[in-house]
Amino acid sequence: MSTIANTRLGTAGALAALALTLACSAGESVEPLTPTVATEPGVVEGTRLDSGILAFRGIPYAAPPVGELRWQAPRPVPAWEGSRDATGFSPTCWQPLSPPGSFYASGQIERSEDCLYLNVWTGADHAEAALPVMVWIHGGGLRTGAGSTVLYDGESLASRGVVLVTINYRLGPMGFLAHPELSAENEAGVSGNYGILDQIAALRWVQANIAGFGGDPARVTIFGESAGSWSVNYLTATPLAAGLFQRAIGHSGGIFWPMPKLADAESEGAGVAERLGASDLAAMRAASVEEVYRAANESEAIQFVGLNDGHVFPRDIYDLFAAGEQNDVDTIVGFNSDEGTALFAGAGGTTIDGYRETLAATYGDHADAMFAVYPAASDEEAHEAAYQNQADRFFAWQMRTWARLQSSTGSRPVRMYFFSRVPPWDEADQYGSYHAAEIIYAFDNLRKSGETRDEIGPFNHAWDDTDRALASTMADYWVNFAGTGDPNGDSLPHWPVYDPDADGVLELGDEIGVIQGLLKDRLDTFDAYYEDLRSDG
Question: Minimal CA–CA distance to 394: which of 335, 352, 326?
């Protein structure tokens, strides 16, 4: 076995390596894994990195969703003859370009509707290695992002003994547009949710093909951040993904508030078709993707997100979890200490009056209770309180709710983290531990930022020993979890199973340790608000 394949393997990976060694010593022939791997549709030709890790980029997992396949569930990949080049990333799914100066700028990207591809990194020496598999689902509000982002490079995690997969999936109106005629042509009588169906198709590809890359299809962990975490939440809830994965990690994103309904989304989609001047589905499918986006963007009300359609989601995700009907898997969820700094810093205006008006418009009878736990005595404090309120609503409350529901209705354990490390850079005081700050640590990809990060954000980081130690520890936790369902390991601070009564959360920061009752009063206030909202609905 190579040094890379033996480096920091999880327990299950080490057992697989031992089994291979015993098999070889018993005289059984085990072929080494090469950059040429056979998948069901055909052979792919990747590349071996200097580290020894094998990388395969731009592997199709579904047929191009173009022409008649636009706004349909993903179809199987047509077979090909010979060897398909898998050394370069595919285009990203079509998405708007980031505005100049955006905090989460993506730079210049190649976009296409033909985008249903995935990427694989493996350190396995043999196809029989049966290493744990980790499938990363990118964020971006279900509107932007790609599995090819340098931040998600899988070389470091693969060197720890997993097979790492990143995926693309349809976004915005191409991935989530509903329409009455689209529903009528569908066997289940529904439309929308195509991006989620893409993710399910990618997981089915993993089940069918990952063993050829040295992965174990019986040990698949899905993980993602922001809308990628929404996606993990969607997949843990939908019965269509049952059995496709065994573990889940959600970074900063859940969908436990009321979901949009199919009928409302169909009405919005009909409006898009009208603005396109399209009288039928053929005309809608003949429109350019740019025309579709322009027509969609004329409405500020339309949401391109997962729908409660009665099929992909029989009910709202909260209700599915509350009834114990979720896919019951080992789970890690968490959020960052300063989620709102890069997202909601302008929420509610900068005056106390504007802040109070926003609370009243948003929370109705619960506005005074919200002000009590998010108080402000000056305009400056109102600005701070407004984005803290929004950050907790979108992230902290969602993740605690996820942990509590899984703990109370599932048989598999859940653990919760709180990421508080402030990455060192020249605007650290302004942004703190901002939304998505933890990703580069979980992937142990600090080296990918270099001195500039033009590809993944407009900022430079001056990493120190604390950052490097935290990144190594987080990656170890994540890989251990993928291997056994338990993130704990030798020399790592103990991470206990989540207890809703104690609210014990593992803080991942300058130091690592358990804290109790994190943000309890604030999140309990959201519990009361959403309980009333569900009872009224």
Answer: 335
Q: Which two tokens stand for residue 156?
A: 């470091």
Q: Is the pLDDT of residue 505 over 80?
A: yes
Q: Where are the alpha helices (DSSP H) in 392-446?
A: 397-409, 428-431, 439-442
Mean pLDDT of all residues in the chain?
92
96 domain-assigned: yes
8 Å CB contact between 183 and 190: yes
pLDDT in tens, 387-415: 899 999 999 999 999 999 999 999 999 99
Q: How far apart are CA 431 and CA 443, in angstroms?
A: 21
Query: Taking the mean position of all CA atoms in its chain, how far away is CA 83?
Result: 31
Residue 65 tokens, joined: 């969703």
373 lies in some domain? yes
How many structural domains does the chain have?
2
Tell whether 507 is covered by a domain. Answer: yes
pLDDT exceeds cutoff 50 at 8: no
What b-and-e string marks burial along 59-84, b requiring 16 or more CB atoms within 10 Å of the CB?
A: bbbbbbbeeebbbbbbeebeeeeeeb
> At 1, which amino acid appears?
M
How many whole angstroms separate alpha carbon 330 and alpha carbon 207?
A: 18
The CATH number of the domain where 499 resides is what? 3.40.50.1820
- Among 16-25, 71-80, 330-339, 422-431, the minimum mean pLDDT is found in 16-25
User: What is the percent of the chain with per-residue pLDDT over 70, rounded to a whole number?
Assistant: 91
CA distance 512 to 491: 12
Shortest CA distance to 176 belongs to which of 319, 313, 76, 344? 313
Residues 5 and 25 in one domain: yes
Residues 311 and 335 in one domain: no
What is the rounded distance in angstroms from the CA atom of residue 411 to the CA atom of residue 420? 29
Which of 262, 289, 318 is where one domain is finished? 318
Amino acid at 242: A
**Rounded Cα–Cα distance for residues 14 and 131 (Å):** 9
CB 399 within 8 A of CB 334: yes
Report whether 135 contacts 165 (CB < 8 A). yes
Asked whether 111 and 63 are in contact (CB, 8 A), the reply is no
| Residue 74: domain span | 1-239+253-318
Where does a domain end: 287, 318, 349?
318
Which segments of 298-416 does DSSP mark as H helices, in order?
317-322, 352-363, 367-373, 379-391, 397-409
C-alpha to C-alpha distance for 383 and 437, rounded to whole angstroms: 22
513: CB partners within 8 A, 6+ apart: 493, 506, 507
Other Cβ atoms less than 10 A from the Cβ of 112: the count is 15
List the catalytic residues.
226, 339, 435
- As given in the structure block, the two tokens for residue 84 are 């398909």
Asked if residue 457 belongs to a domain, the reply is yes
Rg (CA), the chain: 23
pTM exceeding the 0.85 threshold for the entire prediction: yes
Task: Identify residue 102 by its one-letter amino acid code.
Answer: S
